[in-house]
């Protein structure tokens, strides 16, 4: 059956929204990723990048509970010392982050404070573009990990996104990462698994593009089976709805995305970079409870993923990095929310992470027009990830940037 007929079948049956049938060279199925199993250095590390779309409020995530300026700036939003999950005598985590708090206690969570860039932009789209391209000083058409992919041979399966659309950070000048959207595929009543199985049979006489279309059909049923296995093992909550946001993020819950990453890591796939995301952090009103809800959707999947990764050698070589496009303003607005700000914290976690606090905390009183002044350039974090996780030359990827974190939390085990 040719690709045109397969496409018409999708449109007629209502399955066209299934991301696994995305057109273009960057659309891959799980079979393509699993096919690389064993084709990597067993000691090589893997980076999982978690993007929080919407601008997460960093001050109510890593909470400076001992600073009186914090309570003064946001009296209705501030957490008192009795409610935070204490990390030390000055900082604590949001009450929703019990899993990451335990990881910190276990020495497997590093918090990099005051991360930002010069001349910050408070637009979601421009700031995310800056973070994903790694160029705060000049417009850029390639992502920082896309440029790493270019330098690493260009095989799309080395950098995989479990999001509906390939994020700009995986787009290089000569290559791009692979998009393998996951999640449950709900078939219309008129479409049977047997029909998909028939459509997924590859004819060796077909051109490569048509064979790819066929394997994507086969992946529809494999994804269903995989998600059923994950749910049966307690890896997902069947009642958890995908996060809906106007400012980006995957359409399937984070735990499903991370479950697919875990399967690929455990299968020994050659992939070195995975991109996943969670949206819904643009909270201009009634923020406190809403952010706790969002942070729960981040914390539980991350803690479960870290636990699962700790049980295998390949998993212990995984480093997870969590970031958002900006933090929020120090002072709360009149709607018990916060508006777009600047610097925030990044989280790094994994068995090979040396836990603790890194970078200087920004002052809550010495502000730039009401916003935090960054103390750590995000390119320093990227340089550390490139050098210590991916074994790359940061200056080559980051347009000559030669910085890095003064003390790297990514020590070898």
From TrEMBL:
It comes from Paractinoplanes globisporus. Pfam families: DUF1501 (PF07394). Transmembrane segments: none annotated. This is DUF1501 domain-containing protein. It comes from the Bacteria.
């Amino acid at each position: 059956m040719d690709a045109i007929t397969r496409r018409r079948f999708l449109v007629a049956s209502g399955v066209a929204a299934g991301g696994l049938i995305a057109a273009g060279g960057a659309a891959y199925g799980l079979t393509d990723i699993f096919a690389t199993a064993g084709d990597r250095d067993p000691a090589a590390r893997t980076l999982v990048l978690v993007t929080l779309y919407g601008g997460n409020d960093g001050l109510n995530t890593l909470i400076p509970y001992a600073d009186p300026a914090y309570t003064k700036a946001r009296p209705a939003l501030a957490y008192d010392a009795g409610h935070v999950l204490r990390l030390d005598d000055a900082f604590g985590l949001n009450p929703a982050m019990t899993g990451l708090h335990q990881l910190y206690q276990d020495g497997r969570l590093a918090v990099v404070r005051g991360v930002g860039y010069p001349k910050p932009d408070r637009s979601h789209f421009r700031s995310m573009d800056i973070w994903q391209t790694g160029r705060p000083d000049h417009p850029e058409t390639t992502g920082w990990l896309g440029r790493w992919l270019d330098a690493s041979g260009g095989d799309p399966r080395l950098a995989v996104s479990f999001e509906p659309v390939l994020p700009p950070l995986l787009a290089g000048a000569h290559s791009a990462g692979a998009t393998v959207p996951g999640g449950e595929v709900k078939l219309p009543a008129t479409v049977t698994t047997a029909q998909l199985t028939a459509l997924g049979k590859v004819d060796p006489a077909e051109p490569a593009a048509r064979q790819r279309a066929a394997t994507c059909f086969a992946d529809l049923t494999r994804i269903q089976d995989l998600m059923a296995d994950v749910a049966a093992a307690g890896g997902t909550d069947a009642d958890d709805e995908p996060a809906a946001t106007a400012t980006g993020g995957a359409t399937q819950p984070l735990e499903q995305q991370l479950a697919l990453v875990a399967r690929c890591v455990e299968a020994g796939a050659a992939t070195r970079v995975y991109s996943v995301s969670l949206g819904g952090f643009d909270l201009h009103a009634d923020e406190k409870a809403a952010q706790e809800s969002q942070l729960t959707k981040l914390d539980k999947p991350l803690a479960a993923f870290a636990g699962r990764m700790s049980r295998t050698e390949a998993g212990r070589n995984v480093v997870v990095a969590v970031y958002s496009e900006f933090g929020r303003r120090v002072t709360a607005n009149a709607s018990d929310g916060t508006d777009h700000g600047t610097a925030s914290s990044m989280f790094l976690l994994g068995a090979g992470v040396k836990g603790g606090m890194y970078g200087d905390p920004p002052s809550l009183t010495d502000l730039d027009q009401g916003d935090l002044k960054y103390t750590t350039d995000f390119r320093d974090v990227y340089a550390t990830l490139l050098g210590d996780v991916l074994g790359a030359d940061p200056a080559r990827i980051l347009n000559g940037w030669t910085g890095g974190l003064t003390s790297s939390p990514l020590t070898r085990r």
